[in-house]
Amino acid sequence: MTPDDALLEVRDLRAGYGASRVLDGLSFSMGAESVAVVGRNGMGKTTLCDALVGFVRPSGGEVRLAGRRLDGLAPETIAIAGIAYVPQGRRLFPSLTVDEHLSMLARRARGRRWTPDAVYELFPRLAQRRRHGGADLSGGEQQMLAVGRALLLNAPLIVMDEPSEGLAPTIVDVLVDAVHHLVAEGVAVLVVEQNLRAAVRLADRQLVMVSGRIEAEFTGDELLNRPELQRRYLGVGSTAPAGIATGNQHTEGERA
């Protein structure tokens, strides 16, 4: 990909917490497409998300969106500039209804592609649950709401941290369809995933993260169908996973 084609450019990014460096010269670029970042636990995937959206201030390198440099800016500035975030764990307000979550951003969304009504069209289940509080939603419904909330920023790039975590296969199907729909409309989606099979379904480009850097890139088919690559980069052996899941693992008692 040439710089002219790139929507997001990350160059030699370095970041961490206190004296601990987690990202160590990380670089990649992407256009209006879906891209997945995969890797073992502790390789820096969530720190990458935090650095992109401003929760962690990089100590070096650059993050550019459509040519504009964003590294080091405040999270709200980065969100307005065009990076929306679907965090791991969803981070919803338990006492607010689905409608109330979406109405907080409805004014900014007025007259643009993504409005609360458009979110309800993408996720009909949310429309059925619009009067229910965040704490009353299933894990899948919470994830739909977290994605819908991010969409209301009408950003050109959405970053999703572990979006399939704890979800039943039927809900992962909904998520995959939604991501493909967004990409077809020209929205870029960067997915950080622990679940390899979900990552492959969500994105064809697979960036493998090792020790704070992008070590290799494969297509989804290459990574899924070549066990030696999984063993080398993801620690998946012939008997048990080591730090990355190869299939859906239900951790929430998901309701369909």
TrEMBL record:
It holds the Pfam family ABC_tran. Gene3D superfamilies: P-loop containing nucleotide triphosphate hydrolases (3.40.50.300). The keyword Transport applies. Keywords: Amino-acid transport, ATP-binding, Nucleotide-binding, Transport. GO terms for molecular function: ATP binding; ATP hydrolysis activity; branched-chain amino acid transmembrane transporter activity. The keyword Translocase does not apply. Belongs to the ABC transporter superfamily. PANTHER family: ABC TRANSPORTER ATP-BINDING PROTEIN, HIGH-AFFINITY BRANCHED-CHAIN AMINO ACID TRANSPORT ATP-BINDING PROTEIN LIVF. This is ABC transporter ATP-binding protein. It comes from Jiangella aurantiaca.
